[in-house]
Amino acid sequence: MKIPQQYRSKRFWRETGEAYLFLLPTLLVLGVFTFYPFVNAFVYSFYDIRTRTVPGPLIYSVAEEESSSWESFLSRGRIPPELVAVAEKYGSKPEDLWVRLRQKGRWVIKDEANQQEYIVTKEDGALRVYQAKTQWALEPVGWSNFRQAFRDPDFTKAIRNTVLYVGISVPATIILALIIASLLNQVMVGKSVARLAVYLPYITPVVAITMVWRWIYDRDVGLMNYLISSIARFFGANVSFFDWLDDARMALPALIIMNVWRFVGYQSIILLAGMMGIDREYYEAAKVDGASSFQIWRRITLPLLTPQIFFLAVISLIGAFKIFQEVLILFMGPGPQKSALTIVYYVFTKAFDSGHYGLASAASLILFAIIFALSLFQLTVLQRRVHYER
Amino acid sequence: MKRLLALLLVLFGVLAAGQVTISFWHAMSRAHGEALTYLVQKFQEENPEIIVDLVYQGGYGALQQKLVAAVAAGQPPTLAQQYENWTTQWLDALVDLDLFLSEEVLSDILPQFYEEFEGRIVTVPFNKSILIFYYRPDLMPEPPKTWAEFEAMACALAKDTNGDGQLDQFGTAFRPPNPEIFLTFLTQAGGSILSEDWKEVTINNAAGLEAAEFAARLAKCALIQSAYISDAIAKGVPIGGWIDTSAGYPYNVDAAKTAGVPLAVAPIPCYKNCASMIQGTNLAVFSMNQSKAQIEAAAKLIEFLLREDNIVYWAQKTGYLPVTKTAIESKAWQEYMATSELARITTEQLLAGGFGQLLHPKYMDIRSLLITYWELLLKGEGEPKELMDALAAEIASLIAE
Known about the structure:
The complex is a heterodimer of chains A (390) and B (401). Chain A contains 16 helices and 5 strands. Chain A is an alpha+beta fold. A 5-stranded antiparallel beta sheet of chain A has the order 1-5-4-3-2. The mean pLDDT of chain A is 91. In chain B, α2 links the parallel β1 and β2. With 401 residues, chain B is α/β, with parallel strands linked by helices. Chain B is 48% helix and 14% strand. In chain B, the strands form 2 sheets. In chain B, strands 1, 2, 3, 4, 7, 8, 9 and 10 form an 8-stranded mixed beta sheet that branches. Chain B contains 17 helices and 10 strands.
């Protein structure tokens, strides 16, 4: 086999080694906090997971005539002498053994010195002794967690809500950001202040923002209802107050409005930077040719901004699919009639409220598959429409 | 000098060898945390051979997540506060407390708090609260004593004062995320979620329907909001009276002060009985990665916390319920009840019909369904019978899985 020339050079290997050395801290962080949990979530999605005392090898079968004596000892929390003798064969000392669990037909004896356990179970009327271990045990269930997720009306509702949220909030934010960036690009005085003002929501902690929006959306004293009723009164109309946080029809719009406001500043700044990078010669040539301002924006600015728009579409789509904290804080739950239940919120409640870790892992993998497929679509199909300035 | 140092080291070694350290994870903050710290310090003074590493883990959510991670890693604390539905997730990892606590201690626990998980005693009650009735005497001079009085008073108070078609003054208030109020109505009507053997769903029987119809009628005169009722009170929203946990007392009092309105408490209105749901956490001891000496030390701490004087101290400082017979009958508690309206009402309520959570392993999933249908019922999104039947069908399919 012929080894390519570049691989034979010591310098190549030294530089490659140095590069990996620089990458190591990031790889470690990613490995521990991203790749390891991802692989585990994949594995867990095929298991039922809970803490169990799992029987190991059978080490003793109790003779029928001894059974009642064993049960009498164990039910009083004492170790039968025969069991002590059996356990001694497996390295346990009598003084280290104690009963820690007694149930009908099931007893667990702990050997604290060796951190091992013995389980005595009653099977078909006969007592059997196994070596055992209490652990976070994984019981394979095949595709059952995935089937259960798709059968769960809450999960389908979560998918529908999330898709609706992404489908509206992502394009709405980008369109609004385009308008704001175009306006900011025209501002001559106070440009820095204007940029800072639109960027502020993005750098403010989401918890603080959401708490403020809880007040804005308050049914009785909220700013949103006050503004709407003021505008309505101006036009001579009388509108009743919207119950943003407790009406199932208003919850998702409330979430979308808040997050469009939160991200529009960040996206405007990215687009503004893109606009400022467009060669002025294009604009001058268009003006010479007599193009109107809108024509210039439509035919020059917009096409040359497609790399930035594409970038924003990809990252905001991924981010929007993972919406969670805002729901938790804004509604202190999944929203009225679960109208703001999103996929990540579903995953969170299944794992931490109900203890269905396998189901939660399966749901998170489904979310991963959705995001992966859409990102792939964006990177293959949509990217063809991106114009890179050359 | 060297000899002295060596002597000190030997002495320290001898002392340390006799000591056992246990960890106790909890979620008690502010005044509750201070009361717990005081009790643990007192315990350590009485038991210098035991060192308690008392660790505040944040709110209940944070404590639960940390316990999940710790159990998964095989490194849980010796002792921890936990709700029943957490306990069912790691039942095998817990120690049977009746093997370590004396019969005298266990039999002293009030029957309202006694819980068995799959025939095992793995928890003892710790910080327990109960649903009581809060009311504004300026709107509701006397608290209702029965369902009929409650409905009549609440619906007489409900008004649309500005004529916009929506209520501005409410007779009562309900929170959809809090189905414990429905469970209280259900129990008061003589119903239950499941039959005693858990094989049959009984929530949609005659009693269930009665409870649902009562709640649906009340809901028409009520403020329905997911936020705490105290938030509405603080904003000055007029509400006659509402059912809430006794643990919410400080928040409701603060809200009433903010709004400048009077507030009083009473037992909740009764129907066929005066049942009221108990909430709050228990204490459980983990066996994973613990020695017998640590388990025994944790059991000693539990016995200390369940001692009459300590329970009374804990209940007085925190507003939680005394959980043992001797504490509730003690002179100190009786005297305290004479001075504290909250203590008197919660004790009366507990003795009149306190009941705990269904200890079914799928209770959290059942509760999630209860929240869904409780909200639909409160918002009038369906007839009570139709909703109860649909709820029963979903619970049946859940427990059959």
